[in-house]
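Page 42, continued from yesterday. The earlier attempt failed because a stray header line got pasted into the input along with the sequence. Redoing it now with the clean sequence only.
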Amino acid sequence: MSLLFREEHVAPILERRKTQTRRLWPHGRRCKPGSLHWAQTGMFDRGRFARLRILRVWQEYVEDITEDDAMAEGYPSRLHFLTAFYLINRRRVPSNVNEKMLVYCIEFEVLA
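This time it went through. Structure tokens are written below.
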């Protein structure tokens, strides 16, 4: 199994600055704690760049991300993360506080 990442996330992952990722998985959780996954930038085994061990998986509203979690995502702030998240996922920013987007949060470590 693999997790796809954008090219700009490769360096932060390899430098161990990015240790979390958030995903919109409409059909449920795709990994569990303790499982191993390839980090890659393309489909079908292309662009493999790291082996990841999943440490923790949980759900939260993307808008509830903390500053510390945004930094674990590889971004300097919550605002930078949310801006990138909406652009990457081609979603519009929610227009009101009642509109929340539930995501899967995955914490991982890079294996040597």
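Notes: The mean pLDDT is 90.
Reminder to self: strip header lines before submitting.
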